[in-house]
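If you are new to this repository, start here. Below is one unmodified record pulled from the training split, so you can see the exact layout before writing a loader.
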Amino acid sequence: MQHNPFDDVQEMLDRMSRQAEEGLLRGAGAELQGIAVDVAEDDEEFVVTADLPGYGTDEIDLTVAGDRLKLEASTAREHEQESESDGMQYHRRERRQKSVSRTLTLPGEVDEDAVSASYANGVLTVILPKREGSTEGRQIDIE
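And here is the target side for that same chain:
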């Protein structure tokens, strides 16, 4: 049997897709770019848990539409090397503005009006009740 070069290309695309889903570029000293999440479900709801340490609840935005959940978080800190506004003279300021975002496609549509979220100890938990009648789809007859 002869080797198909398109199999190699497909394998490479699959690997790249997995790496993008896992957060891409963790190696070579780069920190994870984005938001690490867990997505779970039971019969009635999806539960998304996201690590967002260092953000306040007023710095986190959530948007849900159909089967998509968008998480965004942004902090703003001074960009000056030295600041005396708080009575301190800084010799090093590495804690700066940081923004992250991630859009998730959930396994099904959710009841947008019933979504709730909580945030504690740097962990965001979003409860997304499933929309009635959108779990399995339906069979379509071909004429």
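Two things worth knowing about this chain: Strands lie at 37-41, 45-51, 60-65, 68-75, 98-105, 116-120, 123-129. The two ends are 40 Å apart (CA to CA).
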